[in-house]
Amino acid sequence: MNDQHASLTYTSYLALDEVLGAQRPRSGEHDEMLFIVVHQVYELWFKQLLHELGFLRQRLAEGDTAHAIRTLRRILTILKVVVAQIDVLETMTPSQFTTFRTRLEAASGFESAQFRELEAVLGRRDESAVEHYPLGSPARDRIAAAMAAPSLFESFVDYLHGQGYDTDGETRDLLLTVYRDDAGPAVVAEHLVDLDEGMQEWRYRHVKMVERTIGDKSGTGGSSGAEYLRSTLFRPVFPDLWAVRARL
User: Is there a binding annotation on residue 99?
Assistant: First the structure.
């Protein structure tokens, strides 16, 4: 290999040959490409969110309030992009989706291991979340590991302990003290509420997109589609952070 081919390029650094070759439509329908690209981009953002949440937990563990806040702001901005992408999917009409839907066969967004892992990092502890993944598979192992590790809220409570707060009592009493102090930890708490709200917004926009595309039909892969998605609405990730507001 000569120096010209060995040198780093924009294409090689971003692995564009692999990325741009990863769209493999199963039909000749024009709109299938959009469907694939949007969902692949979702998975890339999920990967980045997991990356940022790992970094956030490190910053909390080290008591680094400033960088925890900056990381949360980045996470929140990514979430806004993730939600906004639904607008792109909604340019596809129900009849356009129908033209290639059968080609998806058993494939379903419910199989997104990264989203299940994201839910686990944020605190979901439902063993059914791993049922769709074979025993010993990397996806199942990652989700199980995330469920076995402390949740993000537990990391936040540990951070508060490191900031000098008494964390042995009732959680909402602890949060009440944090908010009344109105210092850096209160800013972290408010950004966690923003994160929770962003996740709820994502779920709401997602279910409305599914409803306008397939109505109450079953989802691909035999999932219950919009019916299941509706059941996930208005379930806060950090319920104590919402409940404490009635006492402020």
Answer: no
Q: Within a 10 A sphere around the Cβ of 75, how many other Cβ atoms?
A: 21
pLDDT digits (tens, 9 = 90+) for 190-242: 999 999 999 999 999 988 888 888 877 655 545 555 776 777 778 899 999 99
- Its pTM stands at 0.89
* Contact (Cβ atoms closer than 8 angstroms) between residue 147 and residue 124: yes
Known binder of ligand: residue 35?
yes
- Does 1.10.10.10 match the CATH number of domain 27-101+110-247? no
pLDDT of residue 163: 98
H-run or E-run covering 143 = helix 138-148
| Of the candidates 12, 35, 7, 8, the residue with the CA atom closest to the CA atom of residue 23 | 35
Structure confidence at residue 1 (pLDDT)? 45
Is 37 labelled as part of a ligand binding site? Answer: yes
Whole-number Å distance between alpha carbons of 116 and 139: 9
Say if CB 120 and CB 147 are below 8 A apart.
yes
- Where along the chain do its domains lie? 27-101+110-247
Residue 69 labelled as part of a binding site: no
Mean pLDDT of 92-115: 81
